[in-house]
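cron nightly-structures :: item 1 of 1
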Amino acid sequence: MDARRHFYLYAKNHYKRTSVLADLRQIGIFNTGLEPRQLADGDIRYIMVGLAERHLRSGEFKLRDFVAMLEDDHFLSGEACENITHRVINACHCVLQMAKVGDSEAPLCNIGEADPAVLPLS
């Protein structure tokens, strides 16, 4: 798995949290080399949906459960989800948080170690 693994590490609390969207944007910047102004919420949604889709396709999570997560109007951090893009990001974040990863659990990816160059470590 490439640098996208940091989205999993963030979801699994390997990094300190400040603001979910700001933190995910920072991870996206680390992955792409773009400037912050070049990475919109829609871009973060696109990345997160791609990651969550792997777990939905594998059968690890059901689509109906994912849709139910869209009803949540707050991020796991307690911040308000201001629009549907934020709700989708939050639902994907929840999928990554619960996803089975690593060698012992053996599913879709090994996420490796957190990197303090991305975000401060927990």
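cron nightly-structures :: done
Residues 41-57 form the longest helix (17 residues).
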